[in-house]
Design a protein that fits this description.
Shape: globular
Oligomer: single chain
Distance between the termini: 49 Å
Strand content: under 5%
Number of helices: 19
Number of strands: 4
């Protein structure tokens, strides 16, 4: 490699493509490390004479010229005809009916979720910073990237989307999942068209959210989150300006969805909730926890502090596997009856955080016992949350 090529190369290949600043760390820059990308630098060669420069310029212009006119129509056509090709096209709904918000209540200050992005600028009492080790940040990145992968490949849904919600007559989620599944088959040069379509969908989800019912709000929240993660991991185009707006909109949707309730009223009284109500509440909480992990990933990339989500204190941790994976109400009723004692003493999310000051040995043992009991029954999503909190806080 010529002597001058390294000094002229200001960013790696992926940072250059995304037009983002590259810290050029030896071995792998921070941005590529968070995404699990192979960090490479394109050598810059000095042309031999002015004639070569002119020829090269013409060649570059020809290579990066506007894609064939068929590329964008193909994306737009796929977007407009999503349900015709989708394996989850609207049909008879086998999912639980939409839930009235009277079945749920919100035990936390939902407005604090919407204002979370301000926490870094406005110091509030009780805020605690989290220091994520590099290996934990890498683990979060790979897990969230895998959630995008199962959607893009069409092999499943993320663990915060309930399987009975996927085939619902809700065009928003169907549009999101189907649009993502067109990504691997996109024509060369059509990436910008796909990104434009996704960003338009994201803006529409937020601008229309005041007209949604509680179920539609959850679906809009989940779809927006999936779009954000797709752009971050697969298209490397979540610029700083759009990223901040996207996260602000995402937190608006999270707040609106949370206001409709995050816990079943029946559970507060010790009664058995409706199946549809419980699914809605559990899916909301799982989506919230995933959003907070994604937010921490963005903070790590930007080099800003990651704050402990104290506004979520009091919410149940992810429920046991048998309840979340039940495909029918009969299966769920059986699982609920078998785990009623577990539900009445459900682990709270803050029990995965550091112990408060002043907790004696008996209190420490009691929490350890509850966490151990929770781990024996929770699914992979809960195990992932525990791995993050354990490696970060030593819980």
């Amino acid at each position: 490699m010529p002597r001058y090529s390294v000094s002229r190369q200001k960013a790696c290949k992926f940072c250059t493509r995304a037009k983002e600043k590259c810290d050029r760390k030896p071995g792998q820059c921070t941005r590529c490390g968070l995404r699990g990308l192979a960090c490479t630098y394109t050598p810059t060669k000095r042309p031999k004479n002015p004639k070569d420069t002119a020829n090269n310029s013409r060649r570059v212009i020809r290579d990066v010229s506007v894609p064939p006119r068929t590329s964008r129509p193909s994306v737009v056509a796929a977007h407009q005809d999503l349900h015709a090709e989708s394996p989850i096209a609207p049909g008879p709904c086998r999912a639980p009916a939409p839930v009235l918000t009277d079945d749920l209540y919100c035990p936390i200050d939902a407005d604090a979720i919407q204002n979370r992005w301000l926490n870094f600028y406005l110091s509030e009492p009780g805020q605690n910073q989290k220091q994520y080790p590099v290996n934990v940040t890498t683990f979060i990145s790979r897990m969230l990237n895998s959630y995008v992968g199962v959607v893009v490949s069409g092999s499943g849904t993320p663990p915060f989307v309930h399987t009975t919600h996927e085939p619902m007559c809700v065009s928003t989620l169907s549009t999101c999942l189907t649009l993502l599944r067109t990504c691997p088959n996109s024509l060369p040069g059509s990436e910008s068209s796909i990104v434009d379509t996704i960003q338009e969908e994201m803006k529409k989800l937020c601008s229309q959210h005041s007209s949604y019912n509680d179920t539609e709000l959850l679906v809009a929240f989940q779809s927006h989150l999936i779009y954000c993660m797709l752009l971050f991991f697969r298209f490397l185009s979540l610029s700083h300006v759009f990223r901040r707006q996207a996260m602000t909109d995402l937190q608006i949707l999270a707040c609106a969805s949370s206001r409709g309730g995050l816990v079943c009223v029946a559970e507060r009284t010790g009664a058995r909730p409706q199946w549809a109500s419980w699914i809605l509440a559990e899916a909301k909480r799982r989506t919230l926890y995933t959003m907070y992990l994604f937010d921490s990933l963005l903070s790590a990339e930007e080099g800003t502090p990651t704050l402990l989500g104290t506004e979520l204190e009091g919410l149940p941790a992810p429920a046991r596997r048998e309840l979340w994976t039940a495909q029918t109400q009969e299966e769920w009723n059986i699982a609920y009856a078998q785990s009623h004692g577990y539900i009445s003493q459900a682990l709270r999310i803050e029990e995965l955080w550091p112990l408060p000051k002043g907790v004696d040995r008996a209190g420490q043992d009691a929490r350890e016992s509850r966490v151990q009991r929770w781990l024996q029954a929770v699914d992979e999503f809960g195990t992932m949350l525990y791995a993050v909190t354990c490696c970060t806080h030593g819980v």
